[in-house]
Write a structure and sequence with these properties.
Two copies of one chain form a homodimer. Chain A is α/β, with parallel strands linked by helices and 307 residues long. In chain A, helix 2 crosses helix 5 and helix 6 packs across helix 8. The longest helix of chain A is centred in the first third of the chain and has 16 residues. Chain A is globular and about 65 Å long. The mean pLDDT of chain A is 95.
Chain lengths: 307, 307
C-alpha cells in the first residue's frame, strides 16, 4: 500500500508531500539534513480522539474509583465526590486547584515504574464509550500513516501534549511508533529514592510542567533543543508550537486538524471548553498554517476500521 | 580497525563486551529489545577532560570578558571582578549565589538561537591551556569508540551532565555523535516570545534544573522515561545515576572512570573540589560498579592523538 493511503488528494496532502520532497532533496535550496528533521505532534485531537473528553479524563475517573474502593472516605470528600458523581458543575465551581488535586491523586504518590504498570493494565482493557473499542484503537489512521511516512523520510517524530507524560509513554510506542524518550507532556516533579540496592523515582503531588500553549515551545527547547520543521496540532493550545515551528528559517510546515466530521467522528471547534479552537483557526491564513479538514482530507478516520 | 581498539584487554573491557553480548543475544535470558537499550554518560571527566576546571568554566570566563568589554562597570562589580581577576578565594567566599549569577550572566538574557551561535563560535577557536588544542579535541578516544560500539549494537546514547545543556548541545553531535535531543544538562528557564511572524525562546536568569546527583536520575525520568541499562560516570555527582541504572531488573552495567594517569592526563579523585570522587569509589564494589582505570584500561587517552 502506498504511503498516506488514507489521505484524499487535495491541498493538505499536496502540502505535506511537496514539503517532504523539498526538505529531503539533496542539493536543493530547501534541503534539511536528517538530524534537523524534527516533527512535533500534539496528541489529543491530533493523533487520537479527544471527545467527549480527553482519554486522560477517563483514566482519571477509573483511577479515582480504584482509590475510592480502597479508601471509602474519598467518596464523601471534594473534589472526589463531584468527579465520581459526574457532577461537572461542582467540579467547575471547585476550579483549577481541584483538577490538579485529582490529577495528583491519580498520578502521584507512586513510583514511575508502578504508574507504568497501572497505565499499561488500564490501556489493555479501557474502551471508548461512544466507539466501543479500546482507546488505543481510537488513533487516527491518516496520522499514523503520516508519522510512518515522515520517519521513512528521515524525520524524527515527537509528541508534545498537554496530557500526562507517563500516561502517553505507556502506549505511544505501540500505537504510533514513538519511543518514550520522544514524548513530551505535562509532568509532576520526581524524587529519587535509594535504599540499599533498590532505587525508584517517586511521582510527587507537585506540578513540574503543564505542557500547554507557550509551555509547548518552551518544553521543545528543553527536551529537543532544536526548532521543529513540521508541527501538527488541533487547538489554540498548539498555536505557540505551530508559530514557533513556522517562523524558523527555511522550509517549514505547520498543520491543524479541523474536526468537521460529525458523521465519522465529532464536529467541534470553538465550543469545546476543554480545548477550544478559535484563534488558531481565525489566524491560520495569517500565520501560514495549513488547515486539514477531517471530512474532506481523510478517507478513513480511525486506525481500527477495516482497510 | 576493530571496535574498542583503544581499550586494553582486561576486566573493564571484558565487562563491557560481555554485557553487550548478553543483552543483544536474541533468545538469551538477558536479552533486551533495542528500544530499551538506553545508555547514559556523564560528560565532564567521563567523555572529555575536566581539568584544571570544567570546560564550561573557561566558556564562562571568556563570555564574561566579552560582556565586560561592552559594559566596563562589570570589571568593578562582584562577582565579575573576582572571576576576571582569577580571584578564586573571593569567588568561594561569595558562594553559590555568585556562581549562579555568573552562569546566568553568561547563559541568559539572550535567545537559544543566539546562545547557540555564540557557543559554536567559541568551540571553533577556544583551546585547552595545558594540552594546547581545541577543547573539542580533548574528548577521550576510548569513550568515543564505546559510544560508537554501543550504537552499532542498537543502543541509544545520551549525555546526562551537570554542565549547561545548550553548551553541550553545541558540540555533542560532532564530537560524540549524540544529537541535541539526547543531551540532558543543567538548564535555565525559557520564555516563549512571539512578535508578528518572529518567535524565540529567551533564556532567563532563573534556574530550571541543576543536573547533578539525585537530579540526574530525576531528569532521566523526565526526559527519557526509561531506566538506562548502562551508565558511565566519574564522580560522586554520578552515583545516583549509577545506582539507579544498576538496580533495575535484568542485566545492567554501571561504570566509573578513575583518573589515575598523571602522565597522559591528570591523577585525581578525592581532592578535586569541583567534582570529587569519594563515595562512588569507596562503594563501587558494594554497588557492583566497574571501575575503569585510565592508566591501565585505556591504550590511548585523547581523540586527537595519532592512531
Amino acid at each position: 500500500m502506498s504511503a498516506l493511503a488514507s489521505w484524499s488528494e487535495g491541498a493538505a496532502k499536496s502540502a505535506i508531500v511537496d514539503f517532504v520532497a523539498r526538505v529531503t532533496k539533496e542539493g536543493g535550496s530547501d534541503y534539511v539534513p536528517p538530524a534537523a528533521r524534527i516533527a512535533t505532534f500534539d496528541n489529543d485531537g491530533t493523533l487520537w480522539c479527544e471527545q467527549p473528553v480527553q482519554v486522560q479524563v477517563f483514566f482519571l475517573i477509573d483511577r479515582i474509583k480504584e482509590l475510592a474502593a480502597r479508601d471509602v472516605s474519598l467518596k464523601e470528600r471534594q473534589p472526589y465526590k463531584a468527579l465520581l458523581g459526574r457532577d461537572t458543575q461542582t467540579l467547575h465551581a471547585l476550579g483549577k486547584q481541584a483538577i490538579f488535586e485529582l490529577a495528583f491523586a491519580s498520578h502521584a504518590g507512586i513510583s514511575e515504574d508502578e504508574f507504568d504498570t497501572i497505565a499499561c493494565a488500564w490501556f489493555a482493557k479501557a474502551t471508548h464509550p461512544k466507539f466501543g473499542r479500546l482507546f488505543t484503537q481510537c488513533t487516527y489512521r491518516p496520522q499514523v500513516e503520516l508519522l510512518d511516512y515522515l520517519r521513512a523520510n528521515g524525520f524524527k517524530t515527537f509528541i508534545v501534549s498537554g496530557g500526562g507524560i507517563d500516561l502517553i509513554r505507556a502506549f505511544a510506542e505501540q500505537a504510533y511508533g514513538i519511543p518514550r524518550e520522544q514524548v513530551i507532556g505535562s509532568s509532576v516533579k520526581l524524587r529519587f529514592e535509594a535504599k540499599d540496592r533498590s532505587t525508584s523515582l517517586m511521582k510527587l503531588a507537585e506540578l513540574d510542567s503543564f505542557d500547554d500553549r507557550e509551555v509547548k515551545p518552551q518544553n521543545i527547547g528543553l527536551h529537543i533543543g532544536r526548532r521543529p520543521i513540521l508541527a501538527f496540532g488541533n487547538s489554540d493550545g498548539d498555536l505557540p508550537m505551530l508559530r514557533y515551528t513556522k517562523s524558523g528559517h527555511g522550509a517549514r510546515l505547520a498543520l491543524l486538524v479541523h474536526h468537521d466530521d460529525a458523521e465519522r467522528e465529532v464536529a467541534y471547534d470553538r465550543e469545546f471548553r476543554l480545548s477550544p479552537l478559535v484563534e488558531a483557526l481565525d489566524k491560520a491564513e495569517d500565520y501560514g498554517i495549513t488547515v486539514v479538514s477531517m471530512k474532506r482530507d481523510w478517507k478513513t478516520v480511525f486506525s481500527q476500521e477495516a482497510r
